[in-house]
Predict the structure.
Amino acid sequence: SLDEDIFINNNIFNYQKEKYFLSNYHTFISTIRPRTRNEFEKFDNDILDQHIIICGISPNIKHLILPLRTRDKFNHSPILIINIDEHINEEILNDIHYFPHVYYMQGNPIKNEDLKKARIYKSKAVVILSNYKFDDSIIDANSIFIYKAIKKETKNTLIIADLISSKSIEYLSDKSEQEIEDTNFWLYKTFSAVKG
């Protein structure tokens, strides 16, 4: 029957996905068992040192974390995801629950008390993900506000901002357009990176 065909095809697809994942799994560090929501959300702040902060969340966040958990990297910095939702989304949790030293904190990275709780002053890098829910006129506003809030708290942290419009770069700096071209802003297709 059609239902059986769909079920069988889905099983084949899931098997192929799992086979691909397992065949490449040895290249990434992982925990023996999946980590629980509790392990992601309840942690001692003292572990946050030379860590990477991700502001916001995306359905594809696994692909951002994967290169940071390759076996050939000597040091695996703790990763802290800050998002306004009280708990990490179940689907995303299932995508990343084998990665060690990844944590989730409810908070708003525009607020300096939440940045301090995330120990922004001890972080080595921050990634600001865009919020695609806004309309075009304010699409990068959230990223810009977060960037400005972080710069108030720390001057030496590498900041990588996911911007939709390249024109938004001018709002990240008080410098003129010519001065921006001469300084440490880099444009990439996916991210605009700013060395703090």
In short: Residues 10 and 91 are 18 Å apart (CA to CA). The mean pLDDT is 77. The beta strands are 52-55, 79-83, 102-106, 125-128, 158-161, 185-187, 192-195. The helical segments are 2-25, 37-41, 61-65, 90-96, 112-117, 141-153, 177-182.
